[in-house]
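Crash report, auto-generated. Payload:
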Amino acid sequence: MKKINLTIDGSKISVDEGTAVLEAAKQAKVRIPTLCHYEGLENYGACRLCVVEIEGRRNLPASCVTPVQEGMVVRTNTARLREARKELLKLILASHPADCKTCEKHGRCELQNLSYEFGIRDFGCRMHDKRHFIDETSPSIKRDLDKCILCGRCVRVCRDVQSVSVYDFANRGCASIVTPALCKNMSETNCVACGQCTIVCPTGALSETDSVEEVWALLKSGKRAVVQVAPAIRVSIGELFGCAPGTLVKGKLVTALKRLGFNEVFDTNFGADLTIMEEASELVEAVKEGKTHLASSCCPAWINFVEEFYPDLLPHLSTCKSPHQMVGALVKTYYAEKLGKKREDIAVVSIMPCTAKKYEIKRKELKGDVDAVLTTRELARMIKEVGLELNDLPESEFDAPFGITTGAGAIFGASGGVTEAALRTAAELITGKPHERIEFKEVRGFGNVRETELVIGGKKLKIAVAQTLGGARKLLEEIRSGRKTYNFVEVMACPGGCIGGGGQPIPVRESRQKVIEARAKAIYDLDASLPLRRSIDNPAIKQLYKEFLGKPSSKKSKEILHTSYKARKAYGV
Amino acid sequence: MIVKIGVGSCGLGAGAEQAIKALEKSGAEVKKVGCIGLCYLEPLVEVETSSGPVFYAHVDSKEKAEKIAREIKAGNFKSASMTRKELEQSANWKKQVRRVNGNCGEIDPENIDDYIKAGGYEGLKKALKMAPEKVIAEVDRTGLRGRGGAGFPAAKKWQFCRAAKGETRYNVCNADEGNPGAFMNRMLMEGDPHKVLEGLIISSYAIGASKGYVFVRAEKALAAERMRKAVADSRKKGFLGDNILGSRFGFDVEVVKSAGAYVCGEETALIEAIEGKRGTPRARPPYPAQRGLYDSPTNINNVETLAHVTMILSKGADWFNGVGTQKSKGTKVFCLTGSVERPGAYEVPIGFNLKELVHGIGGLDGKPKLIESGGPAGLCLKENQLDVPLDFETMQDEGTVMGSGGVVVFGEECCPVDVAKHFMRFTRDESCGKCTPCREGTTRLYEMLEDLTSGKGNRETLEKISKLSELIRDTAFCGLGQGATNPLVSAMKNFARDFEAHADGKCPSYVCGMGK
Ligand SMILES: Cc1cc2nc3c(=O)[nH]c(=O)nc-3n(C[C@H](O)[C@H](O)[C@H](O)COP(=O)(O)O)c2cc1C
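Recovered output after restart:
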């Protein structure tokens, strides 16, 4: 690509043609303040905080929408700019509620951070009253429009990354709002609950619905309190306690959960292993019968997406419940039996990197398996509330039986992980002999749509892995039109898979992509360090089938571990 | 005996309909024409008598029309307001150079043959015989600058667009005209739609565009209707469609109604609106000429600019260059409203003196106190600042005095703070809400102006207004915000005493309901 030379704050740099000045500055190690720019999203140029001085120009252009030009001389920190940015920030603050103390984003709010960094002590304008109601109709996402600064990140992530387009702007001037079509409540929209909007929102306008009090109440209720932890939590929650992205805190996390008062701490990785047994069997069956496009079903936002936009393709979805629903269902049956308890006397809480799981547990077909879902962020708050120093806690092991897991379950947290885990087991299901390979690096990575062809157990398998729902849409269009045919399709709604989930810690200063990559690396490192790496080798799984389920796809497993789907109707149409 | 009657929305609004009915009933040969630009005389009826045409003004009732009918029969034109000769000698007619408006009030806008008889589509025929580059060169020779406000040289813009890579090229006629006090585009489309359309076809040929749009403000329903009819009639005659006049050039036009927001006149917001999206501006670059409508090279010109193109091609660059200033040639239509005796649309050479426009053409009883020239991004001037040429080069403070050609005159009784507040309310309401300075800033400015006009302001308010105005000008996303504070800033400078008085709790003009 053609290189462009320019000067930023006196230092000469050379960047690709088409780069925005803001990004060029980043390469020159200058972080220009902004509220509407977001890595990976199209630049929008609305907040104007990123204004710079460019020699030869009278006004102050926004650096995020100003492409570099040969010989450009840019200044980013003059007195005039500081003054202008401060005034602009004050303008935003003047119509923003000042209830930081009770705001979900407190301490991680980009607006608050900038306000602090700019040394703003008063807004210089009159303050604004509450104008909007809080939309808590969605089980996953809460909208507080008063806190919206109209940066449009949610609009862009939902439209451009997820291809769902729940949000857009309405009205004009200072009456502008971001809203679903027809100003409907979230529960009436086609929102698939992925929660990516809660990640990119710079303020407290969008957040997950808060289940913390509900969980405290469960812990107080006298019920047997069972908690399970998704594969992606152990490599991310450390970030909220000052660890570098990609720090593994598995044992400490188990201790923290015990200290919070949970009776059993189980591992959703077990559910992942079990999913593989069921799903790989489905795959083998499908290949035998010549059925195509068996699609993974672990990701509830993906399920919502198919139900909403591609109901004709629903028959291709695996009927397996998602891993935590499987664990929940087993706790309330198999494990309840073992404990000699009634299912009503057991409460299951899932710690998930995900906002869509909050919706999932309320689905009619799945009701009762899991009682509450906490995101990574919510759990961190609970740990902090009781004063536990996660980093200083001793390590503990997950409880048996649903704490015994393999590397295959561990990699469910990353995009491609489900596929790789299935491949590790599928060969043996086909031929009765294990495949010589454990690692299938060709399905790993961060491309939105990745395709591979493999020979497993003598069968040629065509596989597609998609991440983000934009990637999923591309893939489904190919499938629907008949241009592409696959044996297995994996889709995770979030970038990078669950490690980039909508309930995960929100990177504030770091590059989100780098954070996701660090989390992925931690997951694959964990997998590599484990003695057992194929679900089929999991002794607890073997025992479960022997004692309770019989074999994969048996009548009992169909009853407990499988589910069904149906087309969704949004906006009342 | 032909009886012409103005059927622009001005004439119709003033009651022309009744007059038409009565005249037709009397057996007169009624010809419906566009507005001649003399808004204050509407409905205006012109009767061709054996001793030359005469005018009847304010023919807004059956009775008045019947009287005319009687006079026609009798052959005496006793109650006529004036003869055509008298009009042509009058102050507000003599100084005009009516080119783009030349057919307005003369031909039937809904009759393509009438337009052709008046020399219509000659420019297109000539252009099609030339190479596209030659057409651009001919326009370049006039240095024609956009009449929509920004004044960008049309030929340069066409060259960029022609040179840009892309399969399809679009050409858009910007007929949004949302600025208060401006109606020259509406009047032209109502009075001579083919002249605008012909310019659009010619420029599309020059650029190599295959699809055109006329983006008309939804409120200008009659203009849209006449443009639609013009497009249909022109297509029937083979001026639109495939292989126009055997030239192998194919082009067609769609008339689109705008979503009705001032910002949709801004070229990138306009593109979004045509695409069916919310009308908010896009970042430039890429400029529309490189990547515009549906990501293809797109040219956008104002209605009047295109009408000039038609004239240039039919009469030649030399003819066009016959009037104007050293630097800018041709004419510009100005809309004069407010406290003047003869409000209307007047076409004068570029460089015409603003004072002469207001005094000579508009005509004043007393002294005007404030003249707002150039629309929402224009300037509030004092009477003694009027002695300036209306051209692209003369700048005052941040804005040009010419702008898009709207001139509003406020009389002695007006309050400059109130006027500035009024303009600020317009931009506040019309801000699209995208960028912080325009959305929040205009809201705050309006609040501060409310404070001033209700006795709640003080000297600090004035300082805050100045500072915030500067911020908005420097940091706003598009021209709407960047120019939003021009009227206010110029008013504060030119009417400093009034603003100071308000800061001290007094309104010298008794407008704001405070003490003097
Ligand atoms: C807020 C705003 C409103 C505008 N409205 C109009 C309009 O109504 N008509 C118009 O021709 N140009 C309007 N413009 C200017 C256009 O962006 C553009 O410059 C013009 O259409 C180009 O045509 P021209 O070169 O023939 O003048 C507006 C600009 C801004 C910033």
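Post-recovery validation: The interface with chain A takes residues 261, 278, 280, 283, 285, 428-437, 439-444, 447, 464, 467-468, 471, 473-477, 482 of chain B (CB under 8 Å).
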